[in-house]
Design goal:
Bound molecules: iron/sulfur cluster
Shape: globular
Number of strands: 7
Order of helices and strands: EEEHEHEHHEEH
Largest sheet: 7 strands, mixed
Radius of gyration: 15 Å
CATH class: Alpha Beta
Strand content: 15-25%
CATH architecture: Alpha-Beta Barrel
Oligomer: single chain
CATH superfamily: Aldolase class I
CATH topology: TIM Barrel
Structural class: alpha/beta
Length: 191
């Protein structure tokens, strides 16, 4: 699979201290995107799923402060099948996974791609939706625009929904809510 880069310690891509994998390739073309260098599907570099697992195991052994893993991009769902072994291994290590995607959960469910459904079902939290410049927010650490939603345990919805009820998602727009979310979510994310 092709990835753009890895951030070994991030505090802006989910709760706590996280290891972040930025996937390469994105078809969405959101105006104002902060990661345009991830758009070219031929950019970045090639890494095998098991090589990435080994890299992360090494990192985790050297950094006990890591709380979890985030997969961002780029558009991770373009390489859903290749990501599955990594996500499964992180879960087996007792850490949670957040997944950022430019697709809304309704789009993913409606498309019905088995690899995408498996990946979304395997992560602890899905952050969905394209970045919308006119709805940009600086109030949230975890989303870039207010249309994006933080969906806990997406496996509960992904196989059944066609029209997702926004009331069943957490849309975090202020720091206080984020802090509450963080303290509430970490034990759940840390399986
Ligand atoms: S989905 Fe993310 S990486 Fe892709 S264009 Fe939109 S903001 Fe950029």
């Amino acid at each position: 699979m092709r990835i753009h880069s890895v951030a070994r310690e991030s505090i802006v891509d989910g709760p706590g201290m996280r290891y972040v994998v930025f996937m390469q390739g994105c078809p969405h073309g959101c105006p104002g995107c902060h990661n345009p260098q991830t758009h070219d599907p031929g950019g970045g570099f090639e890494i095998g799923p098991h090589e990435l697992i080994a890299e992360f195991e090494r990192e985790l052994s050297e950094n006990p402060l890591l709380d979890g893993v985030t997969i961002s991009g780029g558009e991770p769902l373009l390489q859903a099948r290749d990501l599955m072994p990594f996500v499964a291994s992180v879960g087996a290590m007792g850490l949670g996974v957040w997944l950022y995607t430019g697709y809304r959960i309704e789009e993913i469910a409606g498309r019905g791609d088995p690899d995408e459904l498996s990946l979304v079902s395997a992560v602890d939290v899905l952050v969905d939706g394209r970045f919308e410049l006119e709805r940009r927010t600086l109030e949230s650490r975890f989303v870039g625009s207010t249309n994006q939603r933080i969906i806990e345990r997406p496996e509960l919805y992904i196989h059944t929904i066609r029209n997702f009820d926004d009331n069943r998602t957490m849309i975090i727009t202020d720091r206080e809510t984020e802090d509450n979310f963080r303290s509430r979510t970490i034990p759940e994310v840390m399986r």
